[in-house]
Write a structure and sequence with these properties.
heterodimer; A: alpha+beta; Butyryl-Coa Dehydrogenase, subunit A, domain 1; Butyryl-CoA Dehydrogenase, subunit A, domain 3; 3 domains; four-stranded antiparallel beta sheet; about 45% helix; globular; B: alpha+beta; six-stranded mixed beta sheet
């Protein structure tokens, strides 16, 4: 075990810091809608043109294939510079859809989509959850009927983030009639401009419109858009790449440390006060999240569950940090602001992408080896 | 690689050998007998010379290795004398008393841990000790015990042997700042061991104990206690590595990292010990089960940590750019 920067590491870090400080947007990302899309795509294009695009992606697919140590240095500088949150409308494309195409896509699918994602030319959303399939994703019922070389899709998805401004959707549907649970599903690239798609944006509790319901009424998707095997979509959906597991949440996790510094600056607590104690705890916990992020990035061999513990710790700490900001602001927090939006948005951290309760089940069963609950 | 957190094969071998030594000489069941822990098996293993420079007769290993070893000691609830010996040898070395340092590390001169209280200093497992490493607020010093008057005091829940010093304590050499940081690193490492062992004991029990016709670990309430114990232990374990690595690298943020570690360690160890007792139910509340031992050890180790003003340090992740408007 070693943590010592080489002269090359330091040169890389300094170059990253200088570029980020010169180029990061001075304004906060717009809350939602087409302005937020334009902002995210502009920033991605700027990163790409500046030579800082696709750092984690493999070289064969237009990325730079940087090792995890370099990515840590990059993302530390990224969050310290207060560059835009990576959890914006570009997140699914860069951290989920793109890596899934790299792992399971055809050459044609990769050639069409990967360059556009990297250059900041397309936004993706996820179409997994349904009104009746939340934590229990395998009970999903949206169907895709095979008809010649087409899939005819009918049904409904929900909580699809940025569906209203996305170009494509990673859509998980039941393609084998009569199939149950994880069997008979397919992972499909859905062009959001196809006839028969209706999008109903849903305002979230922060007052922003990030997610939406999507209705499919005889939507015709060519079978060439299936990623991985037809009827084998669960395998595709569960495929995650090493670089994806290690890097998707890196910036978000490291950013907690910056958020705490921001709070200390905001509160300037009296030594020994209750707020000083509380901020001391938050500072220590954010430091530990950073240490966990280092561990996931820098310890070999990586294992499939490496990220589960840090992910949940991160989500719950983020909520405590955002809440502390409200307590520091006092009655001034009643007026909507960026901090208030961040606070309200943080309630999604323990719900989206697997609730904290489901994650604790996974930790208990797959990491600790406790017996499974009775399930259908 | 200059940034690498993979456990080296060399360290893995050291830890495997240490595990064998601990299983042989310090099984947790020994604590039911109530005898004080001998330090000789640890000294023979080289525990106290592990981090000594090679030119002073040590193995020249780093803080990372020493911390990992002490986390194993923590799992076995070894007497805090072990940390005291490790640190006493460093304090003696810092005071340029190489003979004393080697005699302490070699196990020839016994040392115990102590902490001041409003009612006078308390010594832990002091039988036969010639010196104590005394925690007095921010100060950590090596004090000679010869000729001092003491009286026995019952430890919390009638655990280890405590002695209260009733005469004036002489002064002794103070730990250098880096040695004081190492002390809190090793105490925290032992607290990690306590947190991990409490987790493992609870998980084993939850896998085998049946109620309502199934192992209690299948119930979400118990499973989530286990998950919370795993989360705490992982957080602490990662921060331990970070603190040890920054100490080894003499990085400017070493003080910050140890402070964060020392803030988290007692809280997580106490919480895991609490949950461990809870998962065991009735037997967990009894003195016949081991679950309660982890709680008492966590309290004991916590008392040895120094104060760290977490907000007084420069942060390694201080923002470089302005927040967007």
């Amino acid at each position: 075990m070693r943590l010592q920067l080489s002269p090359e590491d330091i040169a890389f870090r300094d170059a990253a810091r200088a570029w980020l400080l010169d180029n990061k947007p001075a304004t906060r990302a717009p809350e939602d809608g087409s302005e937020s899309r334009a902002f995210a795509l502009d920033w991605l294009a700027k990163l790409y043109d500046g030579g800082w695009g696709g750092l984690a992606w493999p070289k064969d697919y237009g990325g730079q294939g940087l090792p995890p140590a370099r990515l840590l240095l990059w993302y530390e500088e990224y969050v310290r510079a207060r560059a835009p949150s990576t959890l914006d409308c570009s997140f699914v494309a860069l951290n989920h859809a793109g890596p899934t195409l790299i792992a399971c896509g055809t050459e044609a699918q990769k050639a069409t989509h990967l360059p556009r994602i990297l250059k900041g030319q397309s936004i993706w959303c996820q179409g997994f959850s349904e009104p009746g399939a939340g934590s229990d994703l395998a009970s999903l019922r949206t169907t895709g009927r095979v008809e010649g070389d087409m899939l005819i899709v009918n049904g409904q998805k929900i909580w699809s983030s940025y569906a209203d401004i996305a170009d494509f959707q990673e859509l998980l549907i039941r393609t084998e009639p009569g199939s149950k649970r994880h069997k008979g599903l397919s992972w499909v690239i859905c062009d959001m401009s196809l006839p028969g798609i209706t999008i109903r944006p849903i305002r979230n509790m922060a007052g922003a419109t990030h997610f939406a319901e999507v209705f499919y009424d005889d939507v015709r998707i060519p079978l060439t858009q299936v990623v991985g095997g037809l009827h084998d979509g669960w395998t595709t959906a569960m495929t995650t790449l090493g670089f994806e597991r290690r890097t998707a949440a890196m910036a978000l996790q490291l950013d907690l440390s910056v958020q705490v510094e921001d709070l200390i600056d905001l509160a300037r607590p009296t030594p020994g006060s209750a707020m000083a104690e509380r901020l001391s705890d938050l500072r220590a916990e954010a430091a530990a999240i950073r240490a966990m992020t280092y561990r996931v990035a820098l310890r070999e061999p990586a294992t499939p569950f490496d990220g589960s513990l840090v992910r949940l710790s991160f989500a719950e700490l983020e909520q405590r940090i955002r809440r502390a900001a409200m307590d520091i602001l006092g009655p001034a927090a009643l007026v909507h602001s960026g901090r208030v939006a961040d606070y309200l948005e943080s309630y999604s951290e323990t719900i989206a992408g697997g609730t904290a309760e489901i994650q604790r089940n996974i930790i208990g069963e797959r990491i600790l080896g406790l017996p499974r609950e009775a399930r259908p | 690689m200059t940034l690498d957190l993979t456990l080296t094969e060399e360290l893995r071998q050291v830890l495997d050998a240490a595990q064998q030594m601990l299983d042989t000489h310090y099984p947790v069941s020994r604590l039911r007998e109530g005898a004080a822990d001998p330090m000789a098996p640890l000294a023979e293993f080289g525990t106290f010379l592990l981090g000594f420079p090679e030119d002073a007769g040590g193995a020249g290993l780093g803080r990372v290795e020493e911390a990992q070893l002490h986390s194993l000691l923590g799992r076995h609830l070894v007497s805090p004398s072990a940390v005291a010996v490790s640190i006493a040898a460093r304090i003696a070395l810092g005071a340029e008393d190489v003979d004393l340092a080697l005699a302490i590390a070699g196990g020839e001169v016994a040392v115990c841990a102590g902490v001041t209280t409003p009612d006078g200093p308390l010594l832990i497992d002091a039988g036969g000790a010639a010196h104590a490493v005394l925690r007095d607020g921010a100060t950590l010093s090596l004090v000679p015990l010869a000729g001092l008057a003491t009286e026995d005091a019952p430890m919390m829940g009638h655990g280890r042997a405590l002695a209260r010093v009733t005469s004036a304590l002489p002064a002794g050499p103070e730990a250098l700042p880096e040695v004081a940081l190492l002390h809190d690193l090793l105490v925290s490492a032992q607290l990690l061991g306590v947190a991990e062992a409490a987790r493992d004991l609870a998980v084993d029990y939850a896998r085998t104990r049946e109620q309502f016709g199934r192992p209690i670990g299948a119930f979400q309430a118990i499973k989530h206690h286990g998950a919370n114990m795993a989360l705490g232990a992982e957080m602490l374990s990662a921060q331990l590595d970070m603190a040890a690595l920054t100490l080894d690298a003499r990085a400017p943020d070493a003080g910050f990292q140890v402070a964060a570690l020392a803030r988290l360690a007692p809280r997580i160890a106490l919480e895991n010990a609490r949950l461990g007792i809870q998962v065991h139910g009735g037997i967990g509340f009894s003195a016949e089960a081991d679950a309660q031992l982890y709680l008492k050890q966590a309290h004991l180790l916590r008392a040895l940590l120094g104060p760290h003003d977490m907000l007084s340090f420069d942060a390694p992740m201080a923002p470089t750019g302005k927040a967007p408007s």
